[in-house]
Amino acid sequence: MKDKHIINVIEGTPVTSLSEDELTTINEHVQECDGCRQAFAAAGISAVLLRERAGEAAAFEPPPFFHTRVLATLRERQARASDFWALGRMWRAAGALASTMVATVAALAVLTFLVPGTQSTAGVSTNATARNSYSAEEMIFNQGGLPDDQISDGQVLTTLYGAEDDAVR
């Protein structure tokens, strides 16, 4: 009987549900084997402890308002999690920067479109500027022939550089 240990029987079946034949076999074996006797005693003690603990758990009641506090904490955490990505929180974080950027763009738009630009007429006579109000783009992209009211490239260059040349000479 010493060759056949009862550890497998103890581990495979709860002590409280052992049959009479299994208990007889176990009791005969534990008389001769110290290791199996300790294992059977430990299994019996753990079964008693589990039964007592289960009896105490049935009598246990949660403190008053436990359910209410748990649900309140859960709602609070969910509110914080949903507020984390909310637009209001993002606006609080970047509102000043965004407002400043919008004001800057508006000011630049006003300066660009509503305030008339000033041209520098240094070195060019007033008559030449009034008479030759062509832009460089108009002169470059006008590939067709010159109409009667437009000037030639030579006239543009004379207008632009002629006054400087006269001043230098």
Key terms for this structure?
mainly alpha, 169 residues, single chain
Main beta sheet: none
Rounded to the nearest angstrom, the radius of gyration is: 50 Å
Rounded to the nearest angstrom, the distance between the terminal CA atoms is 132 Å
**Succession of helices and strands:** HHHHHHHH
Structure classification: mainly alpha
Basic shape: rod-shaped
Please give the number of β-strands.
0
| Poorly predicted residue ranges | none
Q: Average the pLDDT over all residues and give the rounded result.
A: 76
Total helices: the number is 8
Explain the overall architecture.
The chain is mainly alpha-helical and about 170 residues long. It is rod-shaped. It has helices at about 5-10, 20-30, 35-60, 65-85, 85-115, 125-130, 135-140, 155-169.
Helices and strands, with pairings:
Layout: H1 7-12, H2 20-30, H3 34-59, H4 66-84, H5 87-113, H6 126-131, H7 136-141, H8 153-168
In short:
This protein is mostly helical and 169 residues long. The chain has helices at 7-12, 20-30, 34-59, 66-84, 87-113, 126-131, 136-141, 153-168.
